[in-house]
């Protein structure tokens, strides 16, 4: 077989992945992650590792809607916030453990995602993007003003008393393990999805919804399913975030910046692929965290300038993401 | 009623324009109906009304006796009506086999069975050598054949072809004509809109000619070609029967 030249075409999905198949590269990467956590490597970087795992899972969640179904959303922070608030409120007012609350939060986020898709998924391109942004703003304003339940602008805090039953863990290593489980679950779900009938329907609706409809697919139903699934997974990530930071600030957990971050990681890593969002997070999350902690005090905003510049370079030279660049590299190598 | 498809007094207006004006015709199972007419005659609109892309402004459409007026595209597909697009609409980021599998999922729920049906369809259309190519790399001729493959993988009762010959080389026209001509014997009824008249005149069992939104002639290909109204509609252009 000849190597196929990939034409860069905006946010193009890289190559044609072998659907549902896990490569050696991915298994080795996962083994390294497990070993890293098990050996408790680099204790000073544990915060960065926890966030890299968590955001890799969140990037995979976003990718189901944005990468696979073509629903580019800048409102996923709303689902993240709904998940985080739902489990925290259930835990504090109804004494429901976050181990169950995480599912309640995921369900609430899925309902919100389905509603957004049913109302807005008929909008195309930029119009859907804008409506998703507006949707997240509505959710944020509700969270800010419904103070009886959400604590308003003060947010909610979770007592920092380690207790496994309340999903407040005693060590950062334990959090690393928890986030790695979330990442692995999101990854397996993505791999299963892309090899399933539903996954094919998502790709069909993304690439051409008229042709999909002519093949008997109801585009609205498929988009709604994609958004609900993506939102559920994002909501679960929200709960994990709340249990790690033990504090919910509505101006962060439902912020546009966070929504952009969710979209950015898969875009950098490779849209529509399973490994891309993970690579995106493993590259970008440490970069942004380390720049912030090392330069944040030296000159206000300098870390953001460097970060932004780095992103522009990445997007210019790797238009189909890191996964796309790796795929091209692999194909350039002569095969035995 | 034995008609597979019946279109009765169907109209469609766009503002003040009557693109389709009280058109009636019926298609029996096993027919290969050619639908022709000059540019702007309303063929595409009529086609889109039957395929469920838009609802008619008036009239009634039935499939197998069931009223399907106003049904959406995906409902029509499930009712057994497949279509191709005049300008191919492939899933560009998927491979050829995956493009066809998406249609095959209409009848086969499992991925393995859908892949088998898609592979068989690719073999029928001599597309097997391109199986794993991304659809974005195909030439126009191959894309047109992919359109036909996707429609046939749905195992339709009725298939609507929209100018599947446009842009093809003479050899490709020959191959495609053979494929289309073989469909009725496989239990697939065909409505075929075409500009390449010599191909359709040879193959169709019956013709419907539309002009200015109305049916102006109907009957056997050779008879229709002699109709003064038809000749006039094509501005005196002589139709060559190869």
Task: Please characterize this protein's 3D structure.
The complex is a heterodimer of chains A (336) and B (242). Chain A is mostly helical and 336 residues long. Chain A is built from 15 helices and 2 strands. The longest helix of chain A is centred in the C-terminal third of the chain and has 27 residues. Chain A is globular and about 55 Å long. Chain B is an alpha/beta fold. Chain B has a single domain, classed as 3-Layer(aba) Sandwich (Rossmann fold). In chain B, 34% of the residues lie in helices and 24% in strands. In chain B, strand 1 and strand 2 form a beta hairpin. In chain B, helix 4 crosses helix 5. Chain B is globular and about 50 Å long. The model of chain B has no long low-confidence stretch (mean pLDDT 90). The chains are: A mainly alpha (336), B alpha/beta (242). At the A-B interface, helix 8 and helix 9 of A face helix 2 and helix 3 of B.
Largest sheet of chain B: 6 strands, mixed
Average of pLDDT of chain A: 86
Structural class of chain B: alpha/beta
Between the first and last Cα atoms of chain B, what is the distance in angstroms?
36 Å
CATH class membership of chain B: Alpha Beta
CATH superfamily of chain B: P-loop containing nucleotide triphosphate hydrolases
Count up the domains of chain B: 1
Weakly predicted, low-confidence segments of chain A: 1-16
Shape of chain A, please? globular
Distance between the termini of chain A: 12 Å
Précis, in short:
The complex is a heterodimer of chains A (336) and B (242). By secondary structure, chain A is an all-alpha fold.
Keywords:
A: mainly alpha; two-stranded antiparallel ribbon; 15 helices; globular; disordered N terminus; B: 242 residues; alpha/beta; six-stranded mixed sheet; 9 helices; 10 strands
């Amino acid at each position: 077989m000849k190597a196929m030249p990939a034409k860069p075409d905006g946010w193009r999905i890289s190559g044609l992945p072998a659907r549902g198949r896990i490569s050696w590269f991915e298994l080795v990467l996962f083994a390294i992650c497990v070993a890293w956590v098990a050996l408790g490597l680099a204790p000073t970087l544990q915060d960065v590792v926890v966030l890299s795992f968590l955001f890799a899972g969140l990037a995979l969640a976003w990718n189901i809607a944005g990468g696979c179904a073509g629903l580019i959303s800048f409102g996923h922070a709303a689902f993240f916030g709904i998940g985080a608030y739902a489990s925290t409120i259930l835990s504090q007012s109804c004494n429901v453990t976050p181990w169950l609350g995480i599912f309640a939060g995921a369900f609430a986020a899925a309902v919100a995602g389905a509603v957004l898709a049913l109302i807005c998924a008929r909008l195309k391109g930029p119009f859907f993007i804008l409506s998703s942004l507006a949707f997240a703003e509505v959710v944020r304003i509700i969270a800010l003003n419904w103070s009886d339940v959400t604590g308003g602008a003060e947010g909610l805090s979770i007592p920092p008393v380690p207790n496994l039953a309340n999903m407040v863990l005693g060590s950062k290593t334990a959090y690393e393990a928890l986030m790695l489980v979330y990442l692995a679950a999101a990854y397996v779900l993505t791999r299963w999805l892309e090899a399933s009938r539903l996954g094919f329907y998502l790709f069909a609706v993304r690439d051409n919804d008229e042709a999909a409809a002519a093949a008997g697919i109801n585009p609205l139903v498929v988009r709604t399913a994609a958004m609900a699934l993506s939102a559920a997974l994002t909501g679960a990530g929200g709960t994990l975030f709340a249990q790690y930071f033990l504090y919910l600030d509505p101006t962060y957990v439902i912020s546009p910046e966070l929504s952009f971050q969710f979209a950015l990681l898969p875009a950098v890593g490779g849209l529509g692929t399973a490994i891309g969002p993970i690579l995106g997070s493993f590259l970008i999350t440490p970069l942004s965290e380390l720049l912030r902690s090392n330069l944040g005090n030296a000159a206000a905003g300098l870390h953001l300038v460097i970060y932004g510049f780095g992103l522009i370079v990445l997007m210019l030279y790797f238009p189909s993401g890191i996964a796309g660049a790796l795929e091209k590299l692999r194909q350039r190598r002569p095969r035995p | 009623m034995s008609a597979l498809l019946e279109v009765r007094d169907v109209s469609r207006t766009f503002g003040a324009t009557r693109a389709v004006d009280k058109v009636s015709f019926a298609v029996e199972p096993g027919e290969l109906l050619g639908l022709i007419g000059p540019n702007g005659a309303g063929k595409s609109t009529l086609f889109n009304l039957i395929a469920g892309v838009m609802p008619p402004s008036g009239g009634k459409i039935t499939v197998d006796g069931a009223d399907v007026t106003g049904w959406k595209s995906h409902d029509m597909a499930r009712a057994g009506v497949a279509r191709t697009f005049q300008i191919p609409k492939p899933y560009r980021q998927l491979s050829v086999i995956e493009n066809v599998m998406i249609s095959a999922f209409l009848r086969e729920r499992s991925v393995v069975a859908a892949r088998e049906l898609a592979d068989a369809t690719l073999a029928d259309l001599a597309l097997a050598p391109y199986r794993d190519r991304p659809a974005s790399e195909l030439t126009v001729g191959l894309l047109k054949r992919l359109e036909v493959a996707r429609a046939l993988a749905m195992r339709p009762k009725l298939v609507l072809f929209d100018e599947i010959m446009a842009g093809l080389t003479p050899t490709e026209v020959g191959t495609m004509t053979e494929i289309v001509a073989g469909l009725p014997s496989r239990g697939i009824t065909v409505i075929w809109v075409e500009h390449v008249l010599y191909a359709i005149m040879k193959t169709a069992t019956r013709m419907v000619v539309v002009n200015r939104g109305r049916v102006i002639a109907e009957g056997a290909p050779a008879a229709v070609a002699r109709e003064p109204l038809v000749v006039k509609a094509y501005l005196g252009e002589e139709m060559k029967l190869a």
